[in-house]
């Protein structure tokens, strides 16, 4: 089993490419008829192994049931998964989904290249729990949310994320705060030791 191989070979660069026989997300299938238990089990396995989906360029779907005369179903069953060590060893990995050639197979070929242009990774918004402890967080978030009340929910969340990214840059880095606290604790401990000598 893949998970056993991963556990037995920690810290090795690993890549898993080909037909996974399952989808990871709803959007990986053209119809709404989705086996959620299979999808969740596959998602759990990917997480358990420490794999990342390397994404793709090209067509979104890699498999079809070939029912072109009635109602065809398309799915992204073929993908490329890799662990963190692989991404470090091969930082310029690009995956290309080829078109499905209807007469030959129900699957599309996928190609992994470890050379080529560097892909620009879009940084996703990441909420930090320590923000809640900042005195001005509630005020800043509420004010921004209220200022976009006439816009769509999607626009409001994007605007709020942008505002919070700028807001948090003005705060002391968390590592600096932790280092300061560590120094204060050391100072208190040394003072206590000197008093009891």
TrEMBL record:
Name of this protein: Uncharacterized protein
